[in-house]
Amino acid sequence: MALKKFSFNVEEKDNQARLGLIKTHRGNINTPAFMPVGTQATIKGTFIEDIIKTGSEIILSNTYHLMIRPGADRIQSSGGLHQFMNCKLPILTDSGGFQVMSLSKLNKIDREKGAIFNSHIDGKKFILSPEESIRVQKSLNSDIVMVMDECPKKSHDFKKINKSMDLSMYWAERSKKAFGKNPHKGIFGIVQGGLFKDLRIKSLEQLIDIDFDGYAVGGLAVGESQNEMFKVLDDITYLMPNDKPRYLMGVGTPSDILGAVKRGIDMFDCVLPTRSGRTGLAFTWNGRINIRNSKYQHDNKPIDIKTNKLLLRLFYTRTRKKHSHFAITTQQNGGGTTRIDPNKVCFSCFRIPTLLAGLTPGVIHAFAEGRRGELTPVSAMVSFLGLDRLLPRLRNLHYENEPVADGVMDVPVVSGAALMVPRRRFLDHGGFDERYFLHVEDIDLCRQVRAAGGRVYFEPRAEILHYGGTSQTSPFFVETHKALGFIKYFWKHYPGPIERLATMAMIAPIFGAICDDNPKIESMRKIAGDITPHSLVSGV
Q1: CATH superfamily of 7-275
Q2: Strands of the 27-31 sheet, one edge to the other
Q3: Which residues belong to the active site?
Q4: How far apart are CA 96 and CA 148, in angstroms?
Q5: Domain limits of the chain?
Q6: Regarding beta strands 409-410 and 455-459, do their DSSP bridges make them parallel or antiparallel, or are they unpaired?
Q7: Which residues, other chains included, contact 44 with Cβ-Cβ below 8 Å and sequence gap of 6+?
Q8: Which end of the chain lies in a sparser environment, N or C, as judged by fewer CB atoms within 10 Å?
């Protein structure tokens, strides 16, 4: 099959702003387009499938970092960057020019040789010339390559910026010659010139004479104000070829992007979105929100009520701030596999509900080995005293010895490690009772759902891949709070004097059974002796 030629078409314009389409042999890219940054062949904190779900149609990777580790030859031997990172999307690779600036203490610039630097990993000496940058990008087999340039820091020194711009133009010409003719890939020139209008125009004119497939604006997002950045764009975008994509490098805040789109820019990249997501920073129509702030601890409102797509909400609590990631598939009756969209379900593990819709209203769904029997003082006593081991009839109180069903089944309780609830129902029931520190809150939620007329289902055909653990603390710590959780549950749902007396009598067996072989049993008994009815009721 013949490879599709690289091309770009403007499909619609509104003053300077425009909608366009970049065509590559790996897929089309609708513009304006934002490129998530996979510096070292991965986008931190996400899977490629998650990136695709956001609507991203192209990603960016870094020549400098990949040539150092794992090395361009290693990636080439794997079939190129797409195979190496299991990505079918088009990939743009930068030239390494930005790192010449950001790691300036480790390098020196030679007009003919290029950037001579020592690796920030092991100190090994590298020379990154325009020709070498293009060679590395070709071996990575990226779809759009960038010319080698020097990206200067913000400066009002005209002579310094002029010298840097002149060097970038010299390297751009050498990069284009090294790239040769390849109609199936694109090569972009980079406009330099700092904050000086005449230098920017001069740089653009020289790049147009060389003739590139697209034109990037570099040397911004390096400390200048937003107004200064927009002024540079106002100075040059109207002079940029209309039939070529325009790329503003390193810009990622929503207001910067919107302002640049208004001025005719088509492509953007920045590490800011993924970095912000990893640190709990959200950008909304009302400004920035840090969801780690304590004032949002019990805030169940959407992060941004104006957003109705790809909403994710994290419920942070004082007791649980570690996150787990799930990959879920279910086997359908007709064969085959269907992925459950994580944007449409609520994961109870670690209290990380996401946007919910699509599951049967009023029910809880659980997967794998998550079914449980009804938790009552009697069933707990049977289990904790070991009576189920002595009397065979009592062994199925908690489904421990019952064969797994072939299909969905009604159960009283399911484990919260893989529990799903329609979001609206989850909030209707008040979510999880945060008086539980570890365990039992899932049992409590199931009880609330059933009390309100809902149902709890167990799905044995689902397969769940669970990344991360529940606790990195000692088993003693975990089991202690599990036992306390049981006691709090009984006091909450069995308030009668007889039931409470029975619960108090169960304290020792509960702790003893859960921590039977624990070397710290003496400490556990001491803790149990300090428990008071008040602490159980208040959740202190």
Answers
A1: Queuine tRNA-ribosyltransferase-like (3.20.20.105)
A2: 7-14, 17-24, 27-31
A3: 94, 269
A4: 7
A5: 7-275, 294-298+312-467, 475-538
A6: antiparallel
A7: 274, 275, 278
A8: N
